[in-house]
Structure prediction request, 623 residues.
Amino acid sequence: MLSIANQEFESRLFTGTGKFTDSKTMLAAIAASQSQLVTLAMKRIDHSKDFDDLLTPLQQMGVKLLPNTAGARNAKEAIFAAELASEMLATKLIKLEIHPDPKYLMPDAVETLKAAEILCNKGFTVLPYVHADPVLCYRLEEVGCAAVMPLGSPIGSNQGLATEPFLEIIIEQANIPVVVDAGIGAPSHACRAMEMGADAVLVNTAIASSTDPISMAECFNNAVKAGRQAYLAGLGNVSKQAEHTSPLTNFLKF
Amino acid sequence: MSFTEQFKQLNLDELSMRLYSTTAVDVERAISHSQGNIDSLMALLSPAAQPYLEQMAQKAYQLTRQRFGANIGLYLPLYLSNLCANECDYCGFSMSNKLKRKTLSDAELLAEMSIIKQRGFDSILLVSGEHETKVGIEYFKHVLPIVKQQFSYVAIEVQPLTESEYRTLVELGLDAVMVYQETYQPQTYRKHHTRGKKQDFLYRLATPDRVAAAGVDKIGLGVLLGLDDWRLDALVMGYHLGYLEKYYWRTRYSISLPRLRPCTGGITPKVELTDEGLVQLICAFRLFNAQLEISLSTRETPEFRDNLLPLGVTNISAGSSTEPGGYQNPNAQLDQFEISDDRSVSQVIEKMQRIGLNPVWKDWESAWF
Prediction:
């Protein structure tokens, strides 16, 4: 059971809501993923209407929402987005995303740390999306973040765990959950992140842009479960030399 | 520093020669590139790329789906005025055209906005002719807060302004500026712009620099396809985009690819851009730049628009009027150009959903900014 700020999650697969062809497919994919935490962009929600084609179906489904601040380009905008989310959705959970660069959507470390500290002090449960920077993750933990969300590779790129060596360090050092976010493009990538000891993964593009999102969501669900189980079971060491399964000196141990 | 300096270093004749001497091998290499660049754009815009349209379309579709998903943003133009102090031989608003001139009053503006809002739109493009004295910065400063009250995303397509004027409008809520060079070929430009401030090719060319420096979220570039060799114009626009992305990395960029349309007193295209050519253009730009937004207006026919949508288009208008007051009083004969897709918004949406595309009405939270 994964616990983030006293909230329990059986599923370690978090999903997104962007890029689907329609709400029906999105809901079916979320159901197939068995995800219990779904992120959605506050900028997409039309709060002037009673029915929002993105938000309302999710609320009716009863899934826990993780509003995000995508679109924010600095701390000030992200804080405003978080407060709007808190007011609209009655939640203190917030995925903090600040990317002023529209080309690669790289997170701004300086603004993220600044916003994280302010939001934590305001009582938010902050999950910041960051580069796989171990020191930054330490700093975010120090200011009170509930988890960190380092990237595997650029958002939506499906390139997998390009930052693996740094993710390993973050996972080893963190005292809060580590959710690998961005760039996971195949169930095998998600499985690998979980095998490494990540507490959860967040997947959107790989599911939503698949030709069969519902089936793909199920694949990710299985991959995350397998990866987690493998981590708990303990993976064998990787060696460049072959090791005998029946060593010749076994008799000495009697 | 502005694009003007870089543009002056470009030898258009040499570029044209390279464009037309591109080989099939160059095209194949460009298609297989994981990341587009200006050389690959040149290859993909060349005549040598014509036999590769299907491969380009397949890759453009994949890149678009990966980056934008199934989402297509919806916007609508609102024409504020058809007053114009320029003489451009391809435009219905040209000053010598015997056209009834009109600038919207506040009441008329509110009436237009109300209709657009009722149709579900949240993103709006304010358009006017280019008339600095009667429809200038003071008018825009007055209008923008009114529009911003009801629309999250507000873009303008008006005459080029100064950096400080853009900055003022950004403070009032301006999100995007569309400014089309029409053609990057100075001689052709001179031929088609015979009176007014728009004659100043270089001032217009440096406009996106001023817009970006003022902190606008998005800049739209465009050329009027048909004024001259569209391949060369599109290539230079690629140079322009590349420059802007490098120097103003916080800004988003979009392009429009309007084909020259019949209009009151207008000219016929010098270089016809065929349907195949437009498909090639859209795919070439998508392969060149995966995050570039591509807008498609109602200048194209319904069937053709529907077929173009999956190939790289990210934003469309639907149910447009191109005349001031045209949503409230259609057919007043004040329009800028003829519309080819006159379907209603709901018809367009229905079609989009049938082909697996997701209409997005809102994708911006203006209250944050």
